[in-house]
């Protein structure tokens, strides 16, 4: 085909593609232009290859190369600023992934909250049972932290810190360490995640049962109910992410274990991203709200219940329409 005929045949296509690229660059592209962009870009690349193969003139080659370069830049450009990506993760991707992986979440929740409730009940019935998990010194320290006579309630009473900001950082590092431990240990065919879910559930349940039995309910429960909505949920979701990794190693399906693990990791990373956000919120509430002795217990119970409902509603409903579409 002669160059003149080639140019006449495809000139409208090139002009339309140039206009689409310009619209994309300015952020004014229409939906119909976006739908056909990939196909149009491939067509431009094909025309460029044909022009080179047929030895067409340099000006035509230069024009097509420029179009192909501009299309390449738009096709592989960074889609959105980091803030928008973070917002999309929080509002859409994280809760949608939790719903998608509900089986792993259900198993992790059963292991954690089941062991917690059972141990709390048994410790209330058999007082000495707590010493099978904690040493007498640890039990004494725990009683001291939640003693109603304390001016400061919670772990900061032992560390003698006055600065909420210091405790905020401490809570973040401690909680993220527990969550990462629960998640990463899932690489041991899921057994590590099961162990840490049970371990944390039993320990928290034993402490809750013991402090309730000795009469420290007015200090312990108002302290934990607020940040517990985010912190305890985060532990469960970290466990679910670890179980996802373990399941990929145990039953990879028709692909290799390495491929199955990479696919599972892509899902688990989204869960862990949300877990980190939850733990930052939990640390903030724990440092600035839970430890305050100037707030009435009734207010803490009300706010704590509202936070639990908020977490459940968020995980169940947030981003549902966008994700489904």
TrEMBL record:
The record's annotation in PANTHER family points to: SLR1478 PROTEIN (PTHR35337:SF1)
So where does this one cross the membrane? 104-126, 165-180, 187-208, 220-243, 264-289, 301-317
Q: Does the keyword GTP-binding apply?
A: no
Species classification: Bacteria, Pseudomonadati, Pseudomonadota, Gammaproteobacteria, Pseudomonadales
Q: State if Transcription regulation is listed as a keyword.
A: no
Residue spans making up a coiled coil are none
Supply the name of the protein. Stage II sporulation protein M
Q: What keywords were assigned to this record?
A: Membrane, Transmembrane, Transmembrane helix
């Amino acid at each position: 085909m002669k160059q003149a005929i080639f140019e006449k045949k495809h000139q409208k296509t090139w002009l339309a593609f140039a206009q689409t690229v310009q619209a994309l660059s300015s952020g004014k592209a229409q939906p119909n232009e976006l739908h056909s962009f990939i196909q149009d870009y491939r067509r431009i690349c094909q025309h460029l290859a044909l022009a080179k193969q047929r030895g067409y003139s340099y000006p035509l080659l230069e024009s097509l190369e420029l179009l192909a370069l501009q299309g390449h830049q738009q096709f592989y450009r960074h889609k959105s600023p980091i803030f928008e990506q973070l917002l999309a993760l929080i509002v859409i991707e994280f809760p949608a992934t939790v719903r998608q992986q509900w089986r792993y979440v259900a198993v992790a929740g059963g292991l954690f909250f089941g062991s917690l409730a059972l141990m709390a009940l048994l410790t209330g019935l058999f007082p000495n049972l707590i010493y099978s998990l904690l040493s007498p010194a640890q039990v004494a320290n725990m009683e001291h932290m939640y003693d109603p006579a304390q001016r400061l309630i919670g772990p900061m009473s032992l560390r003698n810190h006055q600065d909420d900001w210091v405790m905020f950082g401490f809570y973040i590092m401690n909680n993220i360490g527990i969550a990462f431990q629960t998640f990463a240990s899932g690489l041991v065919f899921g057994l590590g995640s099961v162990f840490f879910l049970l371990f944390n559930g039993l320990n928290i349940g034993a402490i809750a049962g013991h402090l309730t039995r000795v009469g420290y309910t007015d200090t312990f429960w108002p302290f934990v109910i607020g940040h517990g909505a985010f912190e305890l949920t985060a532990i469960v979701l970290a466990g679910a992410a670890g179980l996802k990794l373990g399941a990929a190693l145990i039953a990879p399906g028709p692909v290799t274990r390495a491929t199955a693990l990479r696919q599972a990791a892509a899902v688990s990373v989204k869960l862990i991203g949300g877990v980190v956000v939850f733990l930052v919120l939990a640390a903030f509430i724990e440092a600035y709200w839970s430890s305050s002795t100037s707030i009435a217990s009734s207010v803490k119970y009300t706010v704590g219940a509202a936070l639990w409902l908020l977490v459940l509603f968020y995980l169940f409903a947030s981003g549902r329409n966008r994700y489904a579409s």
